[in-house]
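User: Teach me something about this protein's shape.
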Amino acid sequence: MAFALHERLAADTLLVASLELCELRLMNDTRFVWALLIPQREGIRESFELPTSERAQLWQEVDQLGAFMMRHTGADKINIGALGNMVPQLHVHVIARSQGDDAWPGPVWGSGQAQPLEEETRQTRLALLQRFADEFKGG
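Assistant: First, the predicted structure itself:
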């Protein structure tokens, strides 16, 4: 069976690129620089369901994205989470957090309503994450 993105993830995010294992997507919420990595494997709900080599690849992609976002967003902290309570398909959130953001110091989940990205911010964030994807694939 081929990889299919969960409908909620498709509705809430924008495609950036496909990495070695994961699809990289941008959350459509202007309040946070928020990316998702979704392993392009069918039927995976938990990271431990991936073969060992793919599990290592997932965390390499997560760690490199987090480091990139820390360097390029001015974040005070990078939040990484894989909850899956609302969307069972395995996906890892990588969120650049800053003191004083709309949810600081609490979690982003359940904090207010998402505010869709305006065109200029959408393009800026997509370009930033595309830059990560290009560097990741090239290096």
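Now, about its shape. The domain at 7-138 is CATH 3.30.428.10 (HIT family, subunit A). The first strand starts at residue 13 and ends at 18. If you'd like, I can walk through any region in more detail.
User: That's plenty for now, thanks!
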